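User: Sequence in, structure out. Go.
Assistant: Echoing your sequence, followed by the structure tokens.
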Amino acid sequence: MRVTHLYRNHMNYKSKINPYSQLSQPIPNMHVAVLQMKGWRSDYQESKARILEVIGEAGQKNVRIFVAPECVCSEYCFGSVEEALPFGEKLSGTFAQSLSQISQQSDMWCFVGVIEQDDQHRLFNSVLITAPDGTCQFYRKRLLFDADYLWALSGDEYPFVLPEKQRLTAFGIEASKDDPCPPYPLFEIDGWKVTVGICMDLNDLRFLDFCVRSDVDLIAFPTNWIDQGQPVLNYWATLMQDMHYTTLLAANSYGLDGDYLLSGGSAILQANPPTLLGEAPKTGDFLITCTLENLRTLNHFQGIDTL
């Protein structure tokens, strides 16, 4: 396990896949970073400045995809919409624009958990997604946890939809007949299929089915996973058992948030067979970095069949 404390030098490592495979058209390696961090609503502006600094430093080290926890700067548990409203972020806001600027300068994709506020002052548990071309969008959590309902609306009822020309997805996945809501985001990043889900979304059969049907390579997974006294990695691996080429980029927070104890242990976890490429401790701010090789392409060109 190679994990970097935020106040030390960054470390790097590769997955244990044969690097000498003869590929006629190999998909390039993907350098990713997963942040474990606890922000404080009592010092919200400083928390935002801190994460922008960390993301900027990662961009200078050629990280291509950066994933940060759910509601990373504001914390997560609020008793009402009114309590959460001061922490709402918009695409036109300073934080989103600053993150977008870093993405453009560093040629990096960022997936950062925030509280989104729309023009009608409605709140959503969202991921702010910024791309190197300057495009920004939100993904809104679809399967809400109990604590979400006190302040957030579901992405099922109020999906975030950009005009067609502004959509980042390159695969054109349409909503299924049984699910009228727009599909989960699916991005093409250097040949990798990348999607995003927030915490409870990983418990949603619709999301799991989407990942399997789409042959997703990477799941950007901002979360505030609760410590339930059991190894969370085993649970995540079980949920991913039908995903043959997928790697989970799980960015978690830690410590108390309201009445909930968050489990920490952010991780980079490959599916089938489950392979742990990096894990943060249960507490503390850490950054995990990893250079991945594309499992789907390797298996295809090596002639390995998935049973």
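User: And one key feature?
Assistant: The chain has one domain: 4-18+30-302.
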